[in-house]
Specification:
The protein has seven helices and no strands. It is an all-alpha fold and 192 residues long. It has one domain (3-191). The longest helix is centred in the middle third of the chain and has 34 residues, at 102-135. Helix 1 (3-21) packs across helix 2 (24-35), helix 1 runs antiparallel to helix 4 and helix 1 packs across helix 7.
Length: 192
């Protein structure tokens, strides 16, 4: 496998994870990167690198970010964001993978892109529910800021230093897996 293909896969992994934190931020980042000439998108996704898409992603990102700073609205957004993050992860991964057969590209996008986005989104959802339950939602804006910063940083790193972004994603997946297993084990023990 060509090293450049591996880099685009790692880029897709980082972008997919970023969409687990915020759906529209990674789209905004890749739109800016494509328009500025720092990113080549797959042919069928060239629309992401257009000015109308940039405007649309900018508006959507601002609305999404603002919504997560309103207590209880953020919990509603998490309900919507869970399936949307999976779709975003798939699209983001497929949009940056170049030089690969469509079957392999879409298999990777669905399994890795969608799976990674779902895992990160599950972690943020559990964190938000726990924060809401323990602080009445007062600490949620702090978590929203951390999630926003994580999405911005991870999406940017995925484009410019994809190997490092993929390492961070691996660490996040191990950490979120442990948290989710602990959370659901505790829930199961209470039911037993």
């Amino acid at each position: 496998m060509d090293f450049e293909i591996v880099l685009t896969i790692l880029m897709g992994i980082g972008l997919s994870a970023a969409s687990g934190f915020r759906i529209f931020v990674p789209f905004l980042i890749i739109s800016i990167a494509s328009i500025s000439g720092n990113l080549t998108l797959a042919d069928s996704f060239s629309w992401i690198g257009t000015v109308p898409a940039l405007i649309t992603f900018s508006i959507a990102a601002v609305l999404e970010i603002a919504g997560y700073y309103i207590p209880w609205v953020d919990n509603i957004l998490d309900t919507i964001a869970s399936p949307a993050a999976v779709i975003a992860g798939i699209i983001l991964m497929a949009s940056v993978i170049l030089g690969m057969s469509p079957l392999l590209k879409w298999s990777l996008a669905i399994i890795a892109g969608g799976g990674i986005a779902a895992s990160i989104q599950a972690l943020t959802g559990v964190t938000r529910v726990t924060s809401t339950a323990s602080t009445g939602g007062l600490a949620n804006p702090v978590f929203s800021s951390i999630e926003l910063g994580s999405s911005l940083t991870l999406a940017s790193m995925a484009i410019f230093i994809p190997v490092f972004a993929a390492i961070i994603v691996l660490v996040l997946l191990v950490w979120s897996g442990r948290i989710l297993i602990k959370k659901f084990s505790a829930k199961h023990d209470k039911l037993s």
